[in-house]
Amino acid sequence: MTGVSDYRSIATSFGGVAAEYEQGRPGYPDELFDALERLAGRSLKGARVLDVGAGTGIATRRLAARGAEVVAVEPSPGMAAQFLTSSPGIALVKGTGDELPFHDRSADFITYAQAFHWTRPELAVPEAIRVLRPGGALATWWNVKDETVPWVRALGERMAAALPGRYHGYGRIDAHTGHFAPAGLEVSGATLRWERQITVDQLLKDLTSRSYLASLDPGARAGVLADERAALLAEFPDGRLTEPYVLSLTVARTPGGAA
């Protein structure tokens, strides 16, 4: 992330847009979880997984569907309330990656879907190592809109112009995951490309859930979104579009063989 002096200070903004987050954010293709299992060297089925920064449960539900025993970890009351509505039957605890409320060597996987950049890695990485069993895996991943596609690049340029000093992407992914190998973890990764078919309204909900807009005054946010709606409808008059993503996965295994 760039352009925000301490972007973690705006993490609390997500609670107020939890419904838009659930409705607008992209999911994840099956290939992501296939790659996660391959790089971790074990199946998710029967594994104990802590999904940290779970949000509304978009990734948590997919992990549970693979047969994992999942516990969601989420600090925001607003996001947690939406999680309980959207992801019934999945355990949820309040906490952060910087201070995991779990015993030593109690998990096979710790996952961060779109969330590791909200941690302080100097705290979160040792915490993950403490909580993971030997051979366990810390996995992080990010869906990033593919800015090699002209309309996606133009959207980013409009956001940067409308929100100077506030708009940001995820920055260089390796800036977030570069803390893993120095901590003694065995690191591997994969990059996947996929796309989803959505409406302009869905894309606007996705944008609403982004921290650079979620943290704005509601009136200012409405103005930016109205301008963006007009620009998108000029590009896609029928209100439908194909949104491309580059999905970056990093898996960092603890020593000790199979989990």
Explain what the structure shows.
By secondary structure, the chain is α/β, with parallel strands linked by helices. The protein has a domain at 7-144 and 169-194 and 244-253: Rossmann fold. It is built from 10 helices and 7 strands. It has helices spanning 18-24, 30-40, 58-65, 77-86, 121-131, 150-162, 173-177, 200-208, 211-214, 218-235; strands at 48-52, 69-73, 91-93, 107-113, 132-145, 186-199, 240-253. A 7-stranded mixed beta sheet has the order 3-2-1-4-5-7-6. Helix 1 (18-24) packs across helix 8 (200-208), helix 6 (150-162) packs antiparallel against helix 10 (218-235) and helix 8 runs antiparallel to helix 10 (218-235). The longest helix is centred in the last third of the chain and has 18 residues, at 218-235. It starts with 17 loop residues before the first helix and ends in a 6-residue tail after the last strand. The model is unreliable at 1-5 (pLDDT under 50).
Structure in a nutshell:
The protein is α/β, with parallel strands linked by helices and 259 residues long.
CATH topology of the domain at 7-144 and 169-194 and 244-253: Rossmann fold
Mean pLDDT: 93
* Major sheet attributes: 7 strands, mixed
- Principal-axis shape: globular
| Tally of strands | 7
Q: Calculate Rg over CA atoms.
A: 18 Å
CATH architecture of the domain at 7-144 and 169-194 and 244-253: 3-Layer(aba) Sandwich
SSE topology:
Layout: H1 18-24, H2 30-40, E1 48-52, H3 58-65, E2 69-73, H4 77-86, E3 91-93, E4 107-113, H5 121-131, E5 132-145, H6 150-162, H7 173-177, E6 186-199, H8 200-208, H9 211-214, H10 218-235, E7 240-253
Parallel strand pairs: 1-2, 1-4, 2-3, 4-5
Antiparallel strand pairs: 5-7, 6-7
